[in-house]
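Sequence only, no structure available. Ideas?
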Amino acid sequence: MNCRPGCGACCIAPSITSWLPGMPSGKPAGVRCIQLTDDFRCAVFGLPERPAFCGGLRPTAEMCGPDREHALRWIGDLERATSVAR
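Reply:
I predicted one. Tokens follow.
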């Protein structure tokens, strides 16, 4: 499955705990990645600087659903279900 144009949910909804270019401490869930361009594409896609987490997250029909809002909600729910309470 290919990514939906203009979505970017996978660059906003999940937390990323590893180093990202421009975000050395990663990013919290719900925060837009600094590498997400204005047209909702990844500026480091295919580059060695892209975190392994990002490369491992693959779009699926279940995750992406019919629209961007579904994807944001689905990934956000997964984030909350798998986060460690602090």
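The chain has one domain: 9-82.
Hope that gets you unstuck.
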